[in-house]
């Protein structure tokens, strides 16, 4: 009997049931996405594991099974966010027209990522860590991971453009500037064009260093 005939007679082939590992991965992804959303919208202090579980549509028991503490949950969520942003950046850069696949195009894409709500979750964490000793180590660690990821992408896209030490210093400089610009942008959405002007100058300098 053909597939069409089976459908006509109401017998549609069943999908194979999901494995335990697939169900586990799906639950974790929902929890991590919900955590990032909570951090961006509510900030560190107002983000609770109860609210995360509610948004993820899972029980508190399931949440605690996968991530027993708020700190473990947030740490995993930030690493999840970072990898997701890396993939999004790589895809967006590859989709640029050939004439824009350069350092200026890369900086434009990076700035877009910094302006999005998930990136603001990282800013919220850093601000909270300033007065929270238990959070400081996590915040420092994730900042270093962000810089490492940006540096890896830079070296992949522009190999041998500058030496490794110089590249590291440049990435830290760009990261610091973008953090400041992001905070300003979150307040006024660049109503007066000041952040755009700074970005234009950054791109001009980058073009001189990396033709």
Task: Walk me through this protein's architecture.
With 211 residues, the protein is an all-alpha fold. It contains ten helices and no strands. It has helices at residues 3-8, 20-42, 49-56, 60-66, 70-95, 103-115, 117-129, 133-157, 164-188, 194-209. α3 crosses α4 and α5 (70-95) runs antiparallel to α6 (103-115). The longest helix has 26 residues, at 70-95. 19% of the residues are buried. The mean pLDDT is 89.
Q: Could you give a quick summary of the protein structure above?
A:
With 211 residues, the chain is an all-alpha fold.
Q: Which keywords apply here?
A:
211 residues; mainly alpha
What structural class do helix, strand and pairing data support? mainly alpha
Strand content: under 5%
How many helices does DSSP assign?
A: 10
Approximate helicity band = over 70%
Radius of gyration: 21 Å
User: What is the average of the pLDDT values?
Assistant: 89
Total DSSP E strands: 0
How many angstroms does the end-to-end distance come to? 63 Å
> Which geometry do the CA atoms define?
globular
Topology:
Elements lengths: L2 H6 L11 H23 L6 H8 L3 H7 L3 H26 L7 H13 L1 H13 L3 H25 L6 H25 L5 H16 L2
């Amino acid at each position: 009997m053909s597939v069409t005939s089976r459908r006509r007679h109401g017998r549609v082939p069943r999908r194979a049931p999901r494995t335990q590992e697939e169900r586990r991965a799906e639950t974790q992804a929902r929890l991590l996405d919900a955590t990032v959303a909570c951090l961006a919208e509510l900030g560190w202090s107002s983000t609770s594991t109860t609210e995360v579980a509610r948004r993820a549509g899972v029980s508190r028991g399931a949440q605690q099974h996968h991530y027993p503490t708020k700190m473990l949950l947030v740490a995993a969520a930030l690493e999840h966010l970072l990898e997701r942003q890396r993939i999004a950046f790589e895809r967006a850069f590859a989709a640029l027209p050939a004439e824009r696949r350069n350092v200026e195009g890369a900086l434009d894409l990076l700035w877009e990522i910094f302006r999005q709500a998930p990136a603001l979750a990282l800013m919220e964490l850093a601000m909270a860590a300033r007065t929270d000793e238990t959070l400081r180590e996590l915040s420092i660690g994730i900042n270093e991971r962000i810089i490492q990821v940006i540096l890896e992408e830079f070296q992949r896209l522009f190999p041998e453009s500058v030496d490794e030490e110089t590249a590291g210093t440049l990435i830290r400089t760009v990261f610091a500037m973008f953090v400041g610009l992001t905070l300003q942008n979150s307040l006024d959405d660049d109503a007066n064009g000041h952040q755009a002007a700074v970005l234009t100058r950054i791109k001009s300098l980058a073009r001189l260093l990396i033709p």
